[in-house]
Write a structure and sequence with these properties.
mainly beta; Lipocalin; 2 domains; two-stranded antiparallel ribbon; 2 helices; 14% helix; elongated
């Protein structure tokens, strides 16, 4: 016959086993801590975010994507890379310029080749093109990178008041893009100028920039 003392001991042991089992089960079923921004450092004003959907890809909650949201003008895993740098490259670009449309029909399809120079402007979202349209008079043409898609930019055609040399002016449709591998810049612009007959004409130009090989 089990003594009263032994009964108390057995009850205590059973109670302890129950507590241990409950703790074990709880630890097994407790959800794991998901990805977090702990220890993630974003530069240049960027901030960390944990997303289950990013660039159209959906992630599970426990494998959510931790990434830095970068301000316009910066990119990369920690926002450390200036977007302008991919446009500047070595600074020297070979340009193939094609007349896509013109008031002078005979000029449509005309192709010319020259060298242009791209440089930093001092801001994170703009850059300059020099020797624009193969003229030393057309320098510091301002290009502004799109705030939501850093592969796109616009060419300043509104305040280019200085481009009156040789009766030539950018008028509208100044825009461009850079390829996914940063190897080619394509731009289109419309210009107004005096032709050989001293008549005003409009030309729509397409420019393809590729890195200059020294």
């Amino acid at each position: 016959m089990v003594s009263k003392k032994n009964s108390v001991i057995i009850a205590a042991v059973l109670a302890l086993c129950c507590v241990i089992s409950a703790v074990y089960i709880s630890s097994c079923t407790k959800p794991k801590k998901g990805p977090s921004c702990d220890y993630v450092v974003c530069e240049n004003g960027g901030y960390c975010a944990v997303d289950t959907v990013f660039n159209g890809v959906k992630y599970k909650a426990d494998s959510a994507l931790v990434h830095c949201n970068c301000p316009a003008g910066f990119e990369g895993p920690t926002c450390a890379t200036g977007t302008v740098s991919k446009y500047v490259g070595s600074g020297t670009w070979d340009v193939k310029q094609t007349v896509m449309a013109s008031d002078t029909a005979s000029l449509v399809g005309k192709v010319s080749y020259y060298t242009a120079f791209i440089k930093q402007s001092g801001t994170a979202t703009t850059f300059f093109i020099n020797n624009f349209c193969d003229s030393n008079n057309y320098n510091d043409i301002v290009c502004t990178i799109d705030s939501t898609n850093s592969s796109l930019f616009v060419i300043d055609t509104l305040s280019a008041f200085h481009m009156f040399y040789q009766h030539f002016k950018l008028v509208r449709e100044g825009k461009g893009s850079i390829s996914a591998d940063d190897s080619t810049i394509t731009a289109t612009v419309m210009v107004r100028h005096l032709n050989y007959n001293v008549n005003w004409q409009m030309d729509s130009l397409k420019m393809v920039f590729t890195p200059h090989h020294f």
